[in-house]
Structures are given as structure tokens and as C-alpha cells.
């Protein structure tokens, strides 16, 4: 048993639009202070999940509790504890950044300071500019600012960094880390897997309305999907690749065998993006993915053997 | 189970929560915000705030040379074209500030995500309504005051001096503006998208102005059109305004031979109720599962 009840609790969540089943039974928890990344391809059902949690959509069946309340019955006191950054907005924005934030701050019982929030999203120089005059990325920062102005306990970030330049994205990551440090629970959806890896504690992957995997960011996809690869170019110029749990040993044996520095040597650890793509394609391809993975696994078991024994599993990547 | 990464994270301190701002305070804050946005939107300023001024100017310029309206055979009792159209324009101003402005405005907010965003905040729909109605009251009052100033000092029209008449003006315009505001909120449910809002709303408002004695002299309309107009609130607003600004002798031009102020109050009251109920029933922050 956990010592505290989860901030978000979802059990067997179903959602249908007519005969189309958008969500086919999803269950997960988000604990207090945790940053949970919800990943999945377009149309997988991420936004449906998040909008059900925010109270914007009604579920077809299943149990949902957000901050101890059923979102379908969430009142104003409940909403005061949430921060919502929606996926897209197209408001005309005839008010300035400061005016907009001051107004929204006034809706909450215990808001953050307007100047503090404007600084946190890096819009100090645009504070007196009308929102309609801002660039797309700057407007997105206003959305984020409006999401955190009410000092939320639970923050929903639905693809928050779309349209950000790399510097703004890193600034945003720092901001999210500060929010985390203050104890804010965060539900994040994003198509940038590096962002999920940077910010998330745990992740769930949704595909076709089902949760196909869930776990700590560093463990999702299972150990199998995280086996590193050693890649080099052999004498005739063919690129070779080996999947192995012991890349150091492979490299050592490789050096011993070739008697010199292997050309274009790389040890590649699968990024979250690789793992994610493997997961999403895996569900598309059915069981095939797992069968393939099994065949390539030789090197780990023959760890003590000679390099020659392993050569059978070396795959030719490209020539 | 161990998922130690999140253990020991500080929970938000519940005891620190302060009270949410009250319904009325947020309503007042919305009025200020909405009014600011209104005057920064060129469309709303032109088509709902300035339109009655433009129409009054056009009517005066077009028909002013034809002489006075309502002159008795003995040559007395007539008033200038501008003086005759002033009450109609004041009524039209209320209709535009309320119905047209809010119906287009709210349909637009529905379409561009403003309402969805507000729906995710602890703002009560009631405070939102107060904001919209307050905005219409503020802009409608400024509009009426400016129209009368223009009438008095540009067109040289005599305004009433009797305090009782101004009292009538006060309740007719207050009643009219609030009724129109609710009807505007209700009508905003009709357009399928923000973009189609003007196409849906403007014809309705325009037809009402033609049949209700705003652009055309009401006593010249055929009886069936007068009866049709009597089903809608604009006719009664215009009639109430005529009672304020036209000489008593003009009451004989009304359908019943009198300005019928109690009937004006009754009809506006009914429409206020209709608007209130429709607004309450049709308004949603977002269309769920649309």
C-alpha cells in the first residue's frame, strides 16, 4: 500500500463515440509529486484521456478520480486546484500578456505573482504586448503561464512545447523542474520523446486506445528493448552491428581480432524514442517483434565465449 | 512495490488554501475585462457601437430636407426627421449592444477556445454572465449618452426636461439592455461556428429593425407586420423610447392610440424571462463530445 492515495486514479476507462471505441479499458495511477508522461501516436487516445481527467469529456464507463473527485462532478473548488494547458488555442488576444495573466490570477484563491510567472516563461520583454502580436511559440508560453498562474496541485500539459525554439524548450524544462521541486504533480503529453525522458518520472504508452506499456522512464519497454548495440565498419567497408549486454567486451574482442582501431565505432544505447517506436510498432506488428528480439539475443548468453562465436549474430546493416 | 523516485515528495499543504474570490467580485472583474476587450475590437465598436450614429446621420441627411414628421394640418406639432428617428436609434443601440454583440462575441469565444479555457478555471458561468451583461450595460449606457449628446448638440434636437420622463427612459433602457443581453447569450447557441456567427445573427437583427419601427416609421407599416413585430421585444423597446422622446401628440400614431407603457413593461418582462431561461439552458463552456 502507498502511504498516500494517488492524485489521479484511472480504472478500466472506456470511451466510445458512437460505434468507435476511442479508449478500450485504461488503468493507471499518478502519485503526488510525480511527473507522468502519456505517450502515443496521433489519434491513440491521449487527448481523450486527458480531457476526461480535466472534466471536459464524460467517460463511457470505468472509474476516474482526480484529486479525490470524479471529474464529471468537479466543482469550482476542484477546478481551483488544477492547471490546464490545452493542446491548441486560437484566441484573438486583444489584451496584453500582463492584463491576461492578472485577470486569470484573480480567478484563483492563491495565485502566483504575475511578474514572477511572466519571468518564469521568459516573456518579460513582451509583458506589455498584446497577445495577438506575439509569435506562435510566445503565445504557447502564455498558455503555459495561464496554466500555472493559479498555483495548481495538478498540472495538465498537453503538448506544451509545440512551436518552441530549442532555447525556449530548455527554459520550459527548467520551469517544469522548478514546479516539480515545489511538489506539483504533472501529467504531460508530448511527441518529443527527449522531453518525456528529461521530465518524466514514469510514462505510459497508449496505442489504439489501450495502454500498451507503463513504467519508470528508464525501464519502460523492458530490459530487452534497452540492449545496447555496438556498430562499426569492417575492412571491406560493410557496417556491422551487434546487440549485446556487454558492449565493452565486444569492443575489446573486436580490437583484439582486428588488431587496431575499428572504423566508425559506436556503442548505441536505445533512447526513449527508440524504445517507444519499438513499442508502438510492436503492437502494430503483433507478436513478430518479440520473436525477432529472441533470435538476436545470442551475445548475452555467450558472454564468456570467443568473438568468433559471436560473429554468427553480427548483422550487416548497410554496405 | 517500489517506485522510489517519487517517495517523500512534499504534498501540497491543504491548510494553506485560501477562499476562492466571490461570485460578484469575479463578475465585476469580468465586466472590466470584457469592456476593455470590447473597445479594442474594431468589429464590435463599428457594427454595434457606432452603427446607430451612422444610421441616425444617414436618415437625417437623406430625409431632413423633406421637412418635419407628424405635422398637423394646421402646421403645428411636427418634429424634425432626426428627432423622430432618435428613439428608434436608441432602441437599435440596445439591440445591437446586447443581442448582436453578445451572440457574435460568445459564438466566437466558443469557436476560438476562450470558453474552453475559462471552463477549466474556477470561474462560475454566473460570473461570466455578469461580466457579459455588465459589459453590455456599460457600453450601452455610453452609447445612449453619446447618441443623445449628438442629437442635442449636433442635430439640435430638444431632449425631455421632465424628471418623470427620464425615469421612464431609465427603466425602459435598463430593462431593454438586460433583456437584449440575455437574448444575445441565448442566441449565441445558434451559430454552428464562430465564423458563421455574423451570417446567422445579423439578418435576424436587421429584419427586426426593419419591422419594429427603427428604420421605417412604424405607423406606416401594414397591420400584419406591426402584429408580427409585436411578438418581438424590439418593437416594445422602440415604443417605450418614443414615449420618452416624442411629443404626446404622437401617441395617436401608435397601434392602440397610446404609448402603452404597462404593455411595454410586460412584454420586456416576458422576453427577459425567456432570455434568462434560454441562456441558462443552452449555455455550455464546451459542447461535450462534439
UniProtKB/TrEMBL annotation, chain A:
Gene Ontology annotations for the cellular component aspect, listed alphabetically: plasma membrane
GO terms under biological process: response to antibiotic
UniProt-annotated stretches for the region Disordered: 290-319
InterPro entries, sorted: AAA+_ATPase, ABC_transporter-like_ATP-bd, ABC_transporter-like_CS, ABC_transporter_ATP-binding, P-loop_NTPase
Annotated keywords: Antibiotic resistance, ATP-binding, Nucleotide-binding, Transport
Location, primary (coarse class): membrane
The protein's name in its UniProt record: ABC transporter ATP-binding protein
Amino acid at each position: 500500500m502507498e502511504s498516500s492515495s494517488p492524485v489521479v486514479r484511472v480504472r478500466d476507462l472506456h470511451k466510445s463515440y458512437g460505434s468507435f471505441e476511442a479508449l478500450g479499458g485504461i488503468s493507471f495511477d499518478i502519485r503526488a509529486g510525480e511527473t507522468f508522461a502519456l505517450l502515443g501516436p496521433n489519434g491513440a487516445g491521449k487527448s481523450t484521456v486527458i480531457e476526461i481527467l480535466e472534466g471536459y469529456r464524460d467517460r463511457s464507463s470505468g472509474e476516474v478520480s482526480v484529486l479525490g473527485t470524479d471529474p464529471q462532478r468537479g466543482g469550482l473548488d476542484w477546478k481551483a486546484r488544477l492547471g490546464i494547458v490545452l493542446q491548441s488555442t486560437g484566441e484573438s488576444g486583444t489584451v496584453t500578456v500582463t492584463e491576461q495573466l492578472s485577470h486569470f490570477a484573480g480567478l484563483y484563491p492563491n495565485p502566483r505573482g504575475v511578474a514572477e510567472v511572466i519571468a518564469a516563461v521568459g516573456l518579460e520583454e513582451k509583458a506589455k504586448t498584446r497577445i495577438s502580436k506575439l509569435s506562435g511559440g510566445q503565445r504557447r508560453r502564455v498558455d503555459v503561464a495561464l496554466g500555472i498562474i493559479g498555483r495548481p496541485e495538478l498540472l495538465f500539459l498537453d503538448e506544451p512545447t509545440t512551436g518552441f525554439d530549442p532555447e525556449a524548450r530548455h527554459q520550459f524544462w527548467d520551469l517544469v523542474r522548478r514546479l516539480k521541486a515545489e511538489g506539483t504533480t504533472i501529467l504531460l503529453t508530448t511527441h518529443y520523446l527527449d522531453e518525456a525522458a528529461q521530465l518524466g518520472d514514469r510514462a505510459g504508452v497508449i496505442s489504439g486506445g489501450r495502454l500498451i506499456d507503463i513504467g519508470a522512464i528508464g525501464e519502460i519497454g523492458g530490459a530487452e528493448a534497452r540492449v545496447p548495440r555496438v556498430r562499426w565498419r569492417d575492412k571491406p567497408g560493410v557496417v556491422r552491428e551487434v546487440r549485446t549486454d556487454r558492449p565493452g567486451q565486444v569492443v575489446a574482442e573486436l580490437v583484439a581480432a582486428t588488431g587496431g582501431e575499428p572504423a566508425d565505432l559506436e556503442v548505441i544505447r536505445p533512447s526513449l524514442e527508440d524504445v517507444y517506436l519499438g513499442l508502438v510498432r510492436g503492437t502494430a506488428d503483433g507478436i513478430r517483434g518479440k520473436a525477432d528480439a529472441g533470435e538476436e539475443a545470442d551475445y548475452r548468453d555467450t558472454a564468456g565465449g570467443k568473438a568468433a562465436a559471436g560473429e554468427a549474430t553480427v548483422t550487416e546493416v548497410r554496405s | 512495490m517500489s517506485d522510489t523516485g517519487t517517495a517523500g515528495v512534499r504534498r501540497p499543504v491543504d491548510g494553506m488554501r485560501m477562499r476562492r474570490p466571490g461570485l460578484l467580485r469575479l463578475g465585476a472583474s469580468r465586466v472590466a475585462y470584457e469592456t476593455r476587450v470590447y473597445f479594442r475590437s474594431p468589429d464590435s465598436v463599428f457594427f454595434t457601437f457606432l452603427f446607430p450614429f451612422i444610421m441616425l446621420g444617414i436618415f437625417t441627411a437623406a430625409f431632413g430636407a423633406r421637412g418635419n414628421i407628424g405635422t398637423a394640418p394646421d402646421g403645428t406639432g411636427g418634429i424634425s426627421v432626426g428627432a423622430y428617428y432618435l428613439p428608434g436609434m436608441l432602441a437599435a443601440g440596445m439591440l445591437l449592444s446586447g443581442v448582436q454583440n453578445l451572440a457574435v462575441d460568445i459564438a466566437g469565444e466558443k469557436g476560438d477556445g476562450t470558453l474552453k479555457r475559462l471552463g477549466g478555471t474556477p470561474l462560475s458561468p454566473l460570473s461570466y454572465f455578469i461580466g457579459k451583461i455588465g459589459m453590455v450595460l456599460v457600453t450601452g449606457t455610453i452609447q445612449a449618452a453619446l447618441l443623445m449628446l449628438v442629437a442635442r448638440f449636433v442635430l439640435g434636437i430638444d431632449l425631455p426636461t421632465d424628471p418623470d420622463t427620464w425615469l421612464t427612459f431609465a427603466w425602459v433602457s435598463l430593462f431593454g439592455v438586460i433583456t437584449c443581453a440575455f437574448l444575445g447569450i441565448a442566441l449565441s447557441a445558434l451559430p454552428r461556428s464562430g465564423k458563421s456567427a455574423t451570417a446567422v445573427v445579423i439578418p435576424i437583427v436587421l429584419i427586426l429593425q426593419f419591422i419594429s419601427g427603427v428604420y421605417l416609421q412604424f405607423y406606416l407599416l401594414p397591420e400584419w407586420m406591426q402584429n408580427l413585430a409585436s411578438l418581438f421585444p424590439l418593437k416594445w423597446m422602440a415604443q417605450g423610447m418614443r414615449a420618452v422622446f416624442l411629443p404626446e401628440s404622437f401617441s395617436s400614431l401608435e397601434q392602440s392610440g397610446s404609448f402603452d407603457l404597462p404593455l411595454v413593461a410586460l412584454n420586456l418582462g416576458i422576453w427577459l424571462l425567456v432570455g434568462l431561461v434560454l441562456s441558462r439552458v443552452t449555455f455550455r463552456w464546451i459542447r461535450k463530445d462534439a
